[in-house]
Amino acid sequence: MERGASRHGNESHNPLVVSGIIGDILDPFTPTLELRVSIDGKLLYNGVTLRPSQLVKPPRVQIGGDDFRTFYTLVMVDADYPNPSNPHLKEYLHWLVTNIPGTTGEEFGKEVVSYEKPEMQTGIHRLVLMLFQQPGRDTVTFFGGRKKFNTRDFAGIYGLSQPSAAVYFNGHGEKGCGGRRVKV
Fold this sequence. Notes:
Blueprint: H1 15-18, H2 21-24, E1 35-39, E2 42-43, E3 49-50, E4 60-63, E5 71-81, E6 90-101, E7 110-113, E8 125-133, E9 147-149, H3 151-157, E10 163-171
Parallel strand pairs: 3-10
Antiparallel strand pairs: 1-2, 1-4, 5-6, 5-8, 6-7, 6-9, 8-10
């Protein structure tokens, strides 16, 4: 199970709930395996902040599990596109990798939509990596666009179950931003 997810039902401490990822992008789910995401050899945890210069290359992803015959789809979206104050295009698809065998990483999968470096011009953007178990090998394809991507619709079309794991991080411009306003 990835760090920050909750199996014990106390959702008030789950960073995916607190950040609004659960609700805006995903329905509530219980993680079923570990998803390790790293950039430049540093492990990412939910809620860390990164700048575009740190996101030039795609993150490294390591999937837990115990069966390399189980396949997963990795989806990376910007939940606040084009900007957090007016995310009228909502999700923007930055990366899509299918057929990733359990116990391996993204390099063993099929990159269906190539990685595109996030460009956060204004505000703090929530960037989300989600992992879905596939019904079988070669069951997920994609011919849509990056703008107005919808994770829930995508999962429904391809018969993907609830996410097996998810990690999010915050991204903002190189020079910083005004910050995310959260009601407490």
